[in-house]
Amino acid sequence: MEPALARPGVGTEFFLAMSVGPLGRLATLDNLSAAAAAFNLKEGEARDLTSDMQTRVRSSWRDVLGDAGFRDGALDVLAPSFGTGGECE
């Protein structure tokens, strides 16, 4: 299964609930990293934190949602949202 972003008709730009960086609500690592100082972080620290979060979410999302009652079929549908087949790249 290909990542959800690679599918025709699926948007490739996503927006946050509140503005973070110089590009406002645009949900990109570059926008977040550019605002690192607002979070009292250096840009490299911000990138390291987001990379760590990404690794943790990709390695545990299936178990967390499964424990919350999501069935295998629903998890399979959600998998592209977390990376190819839901696996850590």
Keywords:
single chain, about 90 residues, mainly alpha, 3 helices
Give an overview in words.
The protein is mostly helical. It has one domain (4-86). The protein has 3 helices and no strands. The protein has helices at 29-34, 43-67, 72-78. 3% of the residues are buried.
List the helices and strands and how they pair.
Blueprint: H1 29-34, H2 43-67, H3 72-78
Brief summary of the model shown:
The chain has 89 residues and is an all-alpha fold. 43% of the residues lie in helices and 0% in strands.
- DSSP E strands, number: 0
Shape: elongated
Structural class: mainly alpha
Q: In which range does the helix fraction lie?
A: 40-55%
Q: What kind of sheet is the major sheet?
A: none
Mean pLDDT: 81
The number of helices is: 3
